[in-house]
Amino acid sequence: MADYFMRILSELRNQFASLWIVGGVFNVVRCISERSRCLGSKKGSREFDNFIHNCKLIDLPMVGKKFTWYGPDNKKSRLGRFLLEEFWLIQIKDIQQLGLKRSISDHFPILLADIEIDWNPRPFKFISMDG
């Protein structure tokens, strides 16, 4: 199913090549660090990573949560995500992928948002070392 979905998306990407944002649950991880206590397909991960690369899409890091799915026995994976073109990073400087709180689902919702982080000015402290 994932192979079929990625193939269809790749074909659509070739036909309609501008301004893409794709979001959803892909049911595959890109690398081993995107799962914990569960098995995954290395081949599936490689194919998914190739799909992202070939379609020239960017997978933003998650803010707030590392995983988007939690299962029994503390199993966790990052199955949901947004993929977007570089254009959006240029147009929307502070675009982020945020993991939100879940309710009854075993999946966490993800928000793609333009959120500027206010780092607040840090006070400058001068420490005299003159003795």
The 3D shape can be described as globular
The low-confidence runs, each spanning 5 or more residues with pLDDT under 50, are none
How much of the residues is beta strand, in percent? 15-25%
- The CATH architecture: 4-Layer Sandwich
End-to-end C-alpha gap: 71 Å
Q: Quick one: CATH superfamily?
A: Endonuclease/exonuclease/phosphatase
Largest sheet: spatial strand order: 1-7-3
CATH topology: Deoxyribonuclease I, Chain A
Total helices: the number is 3
Number of strands: 9
**Computed structural class:** alpha+beta
Under the CATH scheme, which class?
A: Alpha Beta
Percent range of helical residues: 25-40%
Number of domains: 1
| Major sheet attributes | 3 strands, antiparallel
SSE topology string: HEEHEEEEEHEE
Mean pLDDT: 86
Radius of gyration: 19 Å
Based on the model shown, name its key terms.
three-stranded antiparallel beta sheet; alpha+beta; Deoxyribonuclease I, Chain A; 131 residues
Structural features, described:
The structure is a single chain. Helix 1 (2-15) runs parallel beside helix 2. The longest helix has 14 residues, at 2-15. The model has no long low-confidence stretch (mean pLDDT 86). With 131 residues, the chain is α+β, with helices and mostly antiparallel strands. The chain has a 3-stranded antiparallel sheet. Strands 2-6-5 form a 3-stranded antiparallel sheet, with no helix packed on it. It has a 3-stranded mixed sheet with strand order 4-8-9, with no helix packed on it. It starts with a helix and ends in a 17-residue tail after the last strand. The chain has helices spanning 2-15, 42-54, 86-91; strands at 21-25, 35-36, 58-59, 62-63, 69-70, 76-77, 80-84, 95-99, 110-114. The chain has one domain (2-114): Endonuclease/exonuclease/phosphatase (Deoxyribonuclease I, Chain A), CATH 3.60.10.
